[in-house]
Amino acid sequence: MEVGIRNTQRAPLSCISCYKRKVKCDKKIPCGQCVRRGVVSTCRREKVKVKGQLMQAGTDESHLGATYQDLLLENLALRAQVHAATPNTTESQSMNEDDVFVLDDTIESFGVHLFDSLTYKHLPCTVTTYEDVEFPTRKQSDYLILQARERISWIHYALHHPTFEQEHDEFWNRNEGHSARLAYDPAWLAIYFSTLSAVLVFFHEEDTPTSPAPDCSSLTRMRKWYDTAIFFLEKADYLRVPTLKTVQTIAILGIVFNNVGEFHFHANLWAVAIRIAQTIKIDDERSLAARPAVEREVCRRVWWTLIICDWLPIHQRNPIVLEQNFQVNMPAIKDDDELSGSKSRPASHPRPIHYHIVMIKLAMIYNRYRMALKLGRWTNSTVVDLVAKTDESLAQIIVELPPYLQNDASALTSAKFSETDYPWISWQRTKLSMLLHNLRISVNKILRNIWSDQGLVFQRVRSICLASSTAIISLALDSGQPSERLNSWAVVTNLFSAAVTIAIEEELRGGSADEDPSNPVRRCIAFFESVKEHNQVAVAALEMLHAIIKRSGP
């Protein structure tokens, strides 16, 4: 048993402070007692063991209750909106003393141009007729679907993999000939080929000699199967016939779109997926209640995938979905086999779904921050409060991570989970760390235009941006991750954000990235060179970084 965690018949509703002080608690979080004492940030319920399960009352992950940090952000946003809607003389005089905050989007503009540049490099489609469709062999297909379960299923969370693998076996067993396979359900074939294409994003050529993977280059095959997935989407008449399969296909292709340079197609199809999801009512728990249990959970998972990618955009594209316009529970903390009826494991058992839930929480924090920033009228002092509260919320997510997802050395030592048994843990941990650092850059860099004030607050946010940039580069290039895990456009985007932040800082200091290979910007350039054959975003990143260096050169 974990030290300090007691066994009891039910989880207490009173907060720890009231329980220890033996005073009446109103059982809210934060409770009235803690509010009056000014200790709301530490108001929480005790974690206990009930029938061997670690529990905390009122923390059911299925419900999206607002945290204290959320309420602070909302309060700041509402205050700013009131100021924006009711200008008066007093406010104008106040603004003269504390200038209106003006967003400097210099760094963000690089991210916008990075993806816009992909528009002009559109590659011709490789599949336009049934004659262009190429299936893998059965042996290759079995291998790739198995790899998809390990490598990408927890990234898109669009499938219940045991069900999909059963459908995959039935497809091959019932359709021996090429013509029969072509005549199969096009909506399912779209899912199938999107999965094949997405898993190849994380393959290198060295994967092929000892495995039954395709005998041509993984890059060529990835593009071919990506085009095939789009081909079968069209054959399924996806714009006229809204189905869950279409939503699943597009969610999986989210891994591939930008790697093949289809940035605007990505944005447009993502909007289509959201609209279809709304049409078939997987954005409403009341409608989901009528679906079978496993399908209901698949719908929750894939809906939140759509929301994560809508609220955590690659640049400041306006989100499509507003938080108040849907009601979907968080995914259940269960593995696929548990959903199918297998015996439930302890709550502390490592599960890939924890990653998905953390991503949801990060997306919610960042979306609320962006909405507050956009809707309010901010001064230089009030926007600092917004940034600080958002940064605190991100830090709280780090504290609440399961031990095996924390980068803290002591947490990793205590977790003791084998990479062999849980091959996804180290990659989830690295991806989350890179994203958290990138979000801290995105949140804090809005103050870049007032760094020159040299106040302690501004020195702090400048330090956060530079330290986070360095951390991203180290996580990607020094953590010992297998090279094939670094192929995705998301990794390139994180590294590009870090490199641009450092390059602009060097430019402001009157210098530039020197030729030393150990220079952080040069290291990113070298990495982009190594993956550019697999990643069109890396090609665009190289062009923009070289332009920045040239501009700031002697």
TrEMBL record:
Q: Where is the protein found, in the record's own terms?
A: Nucleus
Keywords (alphabetical) are: DNA-binding, Nucleus, Transcription, Transcription regulation
The cross-references to SUPFAM superfamilies, in alphabetical order and at most eight, read: Zn2/Cys6 DNA-binding domain (SSF57701)
| A Pfam family hit | Cep3
Chief location bin: nucleus
Q: Which residues form the Zn(2)-C6 fungal-type domain?
A: 14-45
GO MF, one term, reads:
DNA-binding transcription factor activity, RNA polymerase II-specific
The domain of life is Eukaryota
Name a GO CC annotation attached to this entry.
Answer: nucleus
UniProt-listed PANTHER family: UNCHARACTERIZED TRANSCRIPTIONAL REGULATORY PROTEIN, ZN(2)-C6 FUNGAL-TYPE DOMAIN-CONTAINING PROTEIN
Question: Know the name of this protein?
Answer: Zn(2)-C6 fungal-type domain-containing protein
Where does this protein come from, organism-wise?
Answer: Exophiala xenobiotica
